[in-house]
């Protein structure tokens, strides 16, 4: 006779419970709505355009006026700009360089590169604003850092790598402060809903220069090499 070990009866395993996830409550937007309501009609139109209509995406955007593309290239890149070619692809993929494209928009210029890490040094932002011109930059990158700066008459008025996190809103010049308030994060207050940092930066740039950024600059065939990083290396 063969004796086998008795097998204990098993019960069916209970089905795995599906974890539940509760959405966090929405942030309070009372302050944001109040800031929007307080904007002038002109500022509200700028904010609405970049918050709801334009879809520009990350990168560095530079606008300047009055100016031609050739003037902007010379001021930003020097007298002999290096046109990007297929030979630059490896350096681009290795994040050693980026490339700017330029587009004439009315009496101003839009310049754009797609990494968000190639902000022009302050000296070049200032140079773009000489002789009565105005210039501005806004950038957004994969690390969620959003910068804004502008210059007028050859002098930098404001430039901060993460403008929405300045310690005090009063640090931002009065002419763009109401727009900046839409995105500013008060370090001493509870977290509340704010407007998109990059969209607000673009609205401020248009207010300062009068130049409306457009995705058409992405379709420009020629682009010109700049190093990565650029601005932070030169200050």
In short:
The protein has 235 residues and is α+β, with helices and mostly antiparallel strands.
Structural commentary:
The protein is built from 8 helices and 7 strands. It has one domain. It is 28% helix and 20% strand. It has 235 residues and is of the alpha+beta class. Helix 2 (41-53) crosses helix 7 (197-209) and helix 6 (174-180) runs antiparallel to helix 7 (197-209). The chain has a 7-stranded antiparallel sheet, with helices on both faces. It has helices at 30-38, 41-53, 69-77, 89-93, 122-127, 174-180, 197-209, 231-234, and strands at 59-65, 97-105, 108-113, 134-140, 146-152, 155-160, 224-227. The mean pLDDT is 90. The radius of gyration is 25 Å and the shape is globular. InterPro entries: DUF6461.
Secondary structure: number of strands: 7
Query: Strand order of the main beta sheet, please?
Result: 6-5-4-1-3-2-7
Helix content: 25-40%
Structural class: alpha+beta
Largest sheet: 7 strands, antiparallel
Q: What Rg, in angstroms, do the CA atoms define? A: 25 Å
Would you list the SSEs in sequence order as H and E?
HHEHHEEHEEEHHEH
Unreliable stretches: none
Shape: globular
Beta-strand fraction estimate: 15-25%
**Count of individual helical segments:** 8
Overall mean pLDDT stands at 90
Terminal-residue CA separation: 91 Å
Give the domain tally.
1
InterPro entries: DUF6461
Biased composition (Low complexity): 8-21
Region (Disordered): 1-29
List the main descriptive attributes of the protein structure presented here:
alpha+beta; 235 residues; DUF6461; 7-stranded antiparallel beta sheet
